[in-house]
Design a protein that fits this description.
The complex is a heterodimer of chains A (113) and B (117).
Chain A: E1 4-5, E2 10-14, E3 19-25, E4 32-38, E5 45-51, E6 56-59, E7 62-67, E8 72-77, E9 86-93, E10 102-103, E11 107-112
Parallel strand pairs in A: 2-11
Antiparallel strand pairs in A: 1-3, 3-8, 4-5, 4-9, 6-7, 7-8, 9-10, 9-11
Chain B: E1 4-7, E2 10-13, E3 19-25, E4 32-38, E5 44-51, E6 57-58, E7 67-73, E8 76-81, E9 90-97, E10 107-108, E11 112-116
Classes of the chains: A mainly beta (113), B mainly beta (117).
């Protein structure tokens, strides 16, 4: 039972354009969502997060949008840079400190120069 | 800050042997550490949650007698894969939480590539 789904295994965009990565979840108890970036043979690095009391959170080139009614979140990267090429995972949790994360399958983003 | 290391970064072993992987929080005390496994082109799957000084909580389907977890201090957790078999070959990643301001944020180690021949 995949509670967090990233339906696009890959995405290719041109440098300077917007990258939009999508994530859907089924568990209505999730109240905190995170995006991680991962390079091959490395651990994920935290990018940005959003709690369920918000619908948008912005940090530099990265913006995460949350649509609770649709159980959908998205990560926007603008402008996209070749260095953004990596696998992006969305993750969700439903508890407070030390909570378990449920990850999506990941989306491979390729930004072409 | 919030750096997590893993050792070794990769290991190759023969079937039937045991392998220990260390996870350390270098500049903070980790109240909770997590162990994940990732197969190629798949998601990170949580294996177990460990808190310092107590027994680990294993996810459904993960054999606790095969994957031994010891969280002996606030900066060190170890995962021992006992009697490893080729199907245990995977990328093992640990993470840690500070339990502070970033309550829900986990800091990940670089991972350990295990190959069982």
């Amino acid at each position: 039972d995949q509670q967090v789904k990233q339906n696009s295994p890959s995405l290719s965009v041109q440098e300077g354009r917007i990258s939009i990565l999508n994530c859907d979840y089924t568990n209505s108890m999730f109240d905190y969502f995170l995006w991680y970036k991962k390079y091959p043979a490395e651990g994920p690095t935290f990018l940005i997060s959003i709690s369920s009391i918000k619908d948008k959170n912005e940090d530099g080139r990265f913006t995460v949008f949350l649509n609770k009614s649709a159980k959908h979140l998205s990560l926007h990267i603008v402008p996209s840079q070749p260095g953004d090429s990596a696998v992006y995972f969305c993750a969700a949790s439903g508890e407070t400190s030390g909570s378990r994360l449920t990850f999506g399958e990941g989306t491979q983003l390729t930004v072409n120069p | 800050g919030a750096v997590v290391s893993q050792h070794p970064s990769w290991v190759i072993c023969k079937s039937g042997t045991s392998v220990k992987i260390e996870c350390r929080s270098l500049d903070f005390q980790a109240t909770t550490m997590f162990w994940y496994r990732q197969f190629p082109k798949q998601s990170l799957m949580l294996m177990a949650t460990s808190n310092e000084g107590s027994k680990a909580t294993y996810e459904q389907g993960v054999e606790k007698d095969k994957f031994l977890i010891n969280h002996a201090s606030l900066t060190l957790s170890t995962l021992t894969v006992t009697s490893a078999h080729p199907e245990d070959s995977s990328f093992y990643i640990c993470s840690a939480t500070t339990g502070g301001a970033f309550d829900n944020e986990q800091f990940f180690g670089p991972g350990t590539r295990l190959t069982v021949l």
